[in-house]
Amino acid sequence: MFSRKDIVVLGMMIFALFLGAGNIIFPPMEGFTAGTQWATASFGFVLTGVFMPFITLVVVSVVGRGEVLTRDLPKWAEVIFLATLYLVIGSLFAMPRVTNVAYEMAWVPLSITEDNSHTHLIFSLIFNLVGMLFMLRPNTIISTVGKFMTPALLVLLVVVAVNVILSPLSDIVEPSKAYATNSAMTSGLISGYQTMDVLAAIAFGGIVARALAVRNVSSTQDVMKYTISAGFISVFLLAALYFSLFYLGATSAQVAEGATNGGQIFSRYVNALFGTAGTWIMSGIILLANMTTLVGVTSACADYFSKFHVRLSYSFWVFIFTVLTTTIAQTGLTELLRVTIPALLLIYPVAIMLVFLQIIRHKLPNIKLSYYFTLLITVSFSACDSLKNIDLLPQGVENMLNYLPLYAEGMGWLIPAFIALGLSLFLGKKSA
């Protein structure tokens, strides 16, 4: 039987899995640029950065694993999508970035060692080897992350949040950049969409399902009930954190001058509040947040690839991904970003539509028609966003797409995708 304590531990684990360093350092810049509109902007951010991933998590945990979302696609399309998803959120991009953020924002500021390539390599090795030790015992993830790592992380974040609320550094300034010309709600929604946590939720849903299975919770109703109960804990904690970080950014004018990202604002703010102790607090937050994300994502990736061949086990893939992450982390992030962001722009809309199609799957008159047609249109328009990002989209095509609502914000695929879904429902009923 799953007790209340177990639900709390699972909820803390879900919170920690979603809470990577990017989730901590992104909102402060949004709060700073939103200015006096920070509350409205943060609400929009929470809708797409917390609730959409939560829905995805519940859907995936109920069906058992993220791969089930693609069961109605041709095998080749299923493999391409899932392999790309796991590699992008895993060792080809996100996990090397996690390693580098942990090094640059948590280790280097402590000034314990000299900042050079050798130190970077040693840190990457130790950081990823520690993560691998957790991953090699997957049944302990719920206890190690949920019982120990997350409470420590929460304590540090609460200390920062309380001090920010009680002693804000600056008055709140007027909105700037996109928030000065666009709706704060819309800008916040789009910012939350850019967190890419829906992709992570596809991987984490399987972790939640396995964690429940270890406790002999396997019926659909029980899995849904406990995932929703635990998920609400994560939703509350993440929403509270994002509101706090938006407020931190909104009151950061004193330290935000010249900052190019939210990590710099967060670091300067914490140092201004706590001095030297602030550096250690920030390092603890970043290290714990990155470690939990590394463990959760890489274990999910290893679990997926272990299904391809019986001799290539979960442990084998954990080792391979650890080596790959450590190696790629030694390269510069600029080139890595240039190569992988187009892939993210392509697969993220597909992930959203796969989740939505799964929710309404039992009501589709012709499942394959709806999946094929809707996803074909989604891929076509999201591919335009991807090509635009690398300056390969023909100017004539871009001129036409500029008339499409939400295209400028990188969401031009949304309306065509739902039009295609509507048409597939109509055509499916006609052919039934």
Automatic annotation (TrEMBL):
<keyword id="KW-0472">Membrane</keyword>
<dbReference type="GO" id="GO:0015820">
    <property type="term" value="P:L-leucine transport"/>
</dbReference>
<feature type="transmembrane region" description="Helical">
    <location>
        <begin position="190"/>
        <end position="214"/>
    </location>
</feature>
<dbReference type="InterPro" id="IPR004685">
    <property type="entry name" value="Brnchd-chn_aa_trnsp_Livcs"/>
</dbReference>
<keyword id="KW-0029">Amino-acid transport</keyword>
<protein>
    <recommendedName>
        <fullName>Branched-chain amino acid transport system carrier protein</fullName>
    </recommendedName>
</protein>
<dbReference type="Pfam" id="PF05525">
    <property type="entry name" value="Branch_AA_trans"/>
</dbReference>
<dbReference type="GO" id="GO:0005304">
    <property type="term" value="F:L-valine transmembrane transporter activity"/>
</dbReference>
<dbReference type="GO" id="GO:0015190">
    <property type="term" value="F:L-leucine transmembrane transporter activity"/>
</dbReference>
<keyword id="KW-0812">Transmembrane</keyword>
<feature type="transmembrane region" description="Helical">
    <location>
        <begin position="410"/>
        <end position="428"/>
    </location>
</feature>
<feature type="transmembrane region" description="Helical">
    <location>
        <begin position="314"/>
        <end position="333"/>
    </location>
</feature>
<keyword id="KW-1003">Cell membrane</keyword>
<feature type="transmembrane region" description="Helical">
    <location>
        <begin position="7"/>
        <end position="26"/>
    </location>
</feature>
<feature type="transmembrane region" description="Helical">
    <location>
        <begin position="280"/>
        <end position="302"/>
    </location>
</feature>
<feature type="transmembrane region" description="Helical">
    <location>
        <begin position="369"/>
        <end position="390"/>
    </location>
</feature>
<keyword id="KW-0813">Transport</keyword>
<feature type="transmembrane region" description="Helical">
    <location>
        <begin position="339"/>
        <end position="357"/>
    </location>
</feature>
<feature type="transmembrane region" description="Helical">
    <location>
        <begin position="148"/>
        <end position="170"/>
    </location>
</feature>
<dbReference type="GO" id="GO:0005886">
    <property type="term" value="C:plasma membrane"/>
</dbReference>
<feature type="transmembrane region" description="Helical">
    <location>
        <begin position="226"/>
        <end position="248"/>
    </location>
</feature>
<dbReference type="GO" id="GO:0015188">
    <property type="term" value="F:L-isoleucine transmembrane transporter activity"/>
</dbReference>
<feature type="transmembrane region" description="Helical">
    <location>
        <begin position="38"/>
        <end position="64"/>
    </location>
</feature>
<dbReference type="GO" id="GO:0015818">
    <property type="term" value="P:isoleucine transport"/>
</dbReference>
<keyword id="KW-1133">Transmembrane helix</keyword>
<feature type="transmembrane region" description="Helical">
    <location>
        <begin position="76"/>
        <end position="98"/>
    </location>
</feature>
<comment type="function">
    <text>Component of the transport system for branched-chain amino acids.</text>
</comment>
<feature type="transmembrane region" description="Helical">
    <location>
        <begin position="118"/>
        <end position="136"/>
    </location>
</feature>
<comment type="similarity">
    <text>Belongs to the branched chain amino acid transporter family.</text>
</comment>
